[in-house]
Amino acid sequence: MRVTMIxxxxxxxxxxxxxADFSHEVTCVxxxxxxxxxxxxxxxxxxxxxxxxxxxxNVEAGRLRFTTDLKEAVKDAEVVFIAVxxxxxxxxxxxxxxxxYAAAAEIAGAVTGPTIVVTKSTVPVGTGDEVERILRETRPxxxxxxxxxxxxxxxxxxxxxxxRPDRIVIGSDNxxxxxxxxxxxxxxxxxxxxxxxxxxxGAELTKYAANAFLATKITFINEIADLCEKVxxxxxxxxxxxxxxxxxxxxxxxxxxxxxxxCFPKDTLALLKTSQDxxxxxxxxxxxxxxxxxxxxxxxxxxxxxMGGDVRGxxxxxxxxxxxxxxxxxxxxxxxxxIQALQDxxxxxxxxxxxxxEQAKLMLDKVTYCASPYEAMEGSDAAALVTEWNEFRAxxxxxxxxxxxxxxxxxxxxxxNEAEMAAVGLSYTGVGR
Length: 433
Prior knowledge:
Layout: E1 2-6, H1 10-21, E2 25-29, H2 33-40, H3 51-60, E3 64-67, H4 70-74, E4 79-82, H5 98-110, E5 115-119, H6 127-138, E6 144-148, H7 158-163, E7 168-171, H8 175-184, E8 195-198, H9 200-231, H10 235-243, H11 264-277, H12 283-306, E9 315-319, H13 334-344, E10 348-352, H14 357-361, E11 367-369, H15 373-377, E12 382-385, H16 397-403, E13 408-411, H17 418-422, E14 427-429
Parallel strand pairs: 1-2, 1-4, 2-3, 4-5, 5-6, 7-8, 9-10, 9-12, 10-11, 12-13, 13-14
């Protein structure tokens, strides 16, 4: 099947490469000429495990192409995906749909025959209706079907998520469009991945509801962690105790510094704006957003408290900058607010992250970036583990103790425990313990 992906960012590139791996003929389009040039030279603009090899294999096989020429890429395509960014709009938190609508207008001007247009971007309820209006108004001579097919990709595990999805959501009331989408995803039948058919508006809302629910689980266990510290319980015990209940499940019940990244922050805000537009308040999601925003700086205060309540003139080693491991994404990372809170208190920051340093440099000032976790800790007054990269899970604790000026280790991801830290003379502070 001939497929065109408008937008070669995280979602578009991963989806395009995976569809090509299914033996579809895929063309990825982007207006950013430097990004396309990098891809043509085999350089991947984002960090995602396995993506470089997947792209290279399918480019070599002739199934995956890159271009800035949207008209040429779209004219003979059977399915055209819109996978452009929908960032939070400045000032009001609404999703900025200008890129989606611009793509729709360009698609309309380029197609030469009946086309299935699929919104892969995360978009508020009703966006597909407007995309369809743009298409039909611009080209009344062409038969269009607009489908919502939201993505559920986790950064750091996106390829596996695409190829072994929990479900494939297809939002359309047209049986022909549904059949085309079934054929597109046919290679996944062997994995018994369920296709969930629903209305287009239902599919659009499903994406936001899923992310809001996961954000709620994270925020819930974080508040339980605060209560655990007050009453003398261990949040990891509580999380396991409730997570073994099949109705609840264990995923997203790991206490920490709050959620960040490219999805949860903007999608919860966009859902709230939609709820306001339709006069259907989402009080739980409102609380989730507020609690999570406050938690990030609260983790900065937690580090200050572990250092005796004053960090002025002190140096703190920050281990991990990205919002989660196995990505270089710094968007809304808890590390940003934590570092800013520490700097406001007069601390100097030395930081290390395996992949996020270049992005961090665009967002943080007056931070010394180091080449290893041990370099960051050398001569620092304390260390704080902020992102649970694998290389932080088996640190040489004796070496950590020898490098730090004072034996203070704050673990915001509960990778370690107090007993193993105490055994080497380190003062340990976890979350909810």
